[in-house]
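Objective 1b of the project was to move from sequence-level analysis to a structural picture of ligand recognition. The entry below was assembled by the postdoctoral researcher (A.K.) and checked by the PI before modelling. It contains the amino acid sequence of the target and the SMILES of the bound compound, guanosine-5'-triphosphate.
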Amino acid sequence: MIEYDEQGKKMVLKLVYYGPAMSGKTKNLLSLHDLIEKKGRGDLMMLDTADDRTIYFDLLPFLIACPSVLKIKIKVYTVPGQVKHDATRKAVLSRADGVAFIADSRLAEMQNNAESFENLEKNLGFVGIDIEKIPLVIQFNKRDLKDIIPEEEVRETWGKTDLPILMASALFGKGVTETFWALLERTYEAIDARIGLNANHGLTRESFLSRILSLSTSNPKS
Ligand SMILES: Nc1nc2c(ncn2[C@@H]2O[C@H](COP(=O)(O)OP(=O)(O)OP(=O)(O)O)[C@@H](O)[C@H]2O)c(=O)[nH]1
Ligand SMILES: [Mg+2]
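Corresponding predicted holo structure:
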């Protein structure tokens, strides 16, 4: 839940990239880091094992100055997807303000996606967050590979929810900023409703988004 000091000077938002092992959560952050110019972001911190699998978390921070005195720090984390790291996932998920669920599009991974989503539901409950209320977006990553679930099938399955569903290939920097944007939009709405980002701090939805994403390079790697 948002960290916000009473003098209205500082707020910290925590966004979490969740999903099964090897779905591309770390790769999303690496691509975001490359796609967004240095001006708007901090450095990417990665805590890896030798074979590139996350053991604790990755963190990419952003800082936004509002027209008021308020400064907003956005901390974007990944969880480790391997089943055995469940305690760490809970710790990273604790006090989250928004979640991007990164699924692996390969047909062979559907069971892992489902289990990871169930794990997300369970762990949100554990840390006292209502899955119906937290800003949540879904990304189907690895669209560049063969033997993937067709997009129509994804949309049919998830169409019942009103969650944003994004197709991506983090390896090629595709769909990465779109996913982040969708998560930021939802998060803005939720925070604005609670503390009046626009009314009290002069920060409109558009300026919130553009302060981060207008810094994207116009020529993403493809
Ligand atoms: N082909 C393809 N490979 C990808 C894509 N995104 C990630 N990968 C690869 O998948 C592997 C796992 O990616 P990571 O980003 O480390 O996965 P993760 O979700 O952080 O995994 P954990 O930290 O174990 O939870 C790496 O070899 C990536 O290069 C993609 O869009 N397409
Ligand atoms: Mg990782």
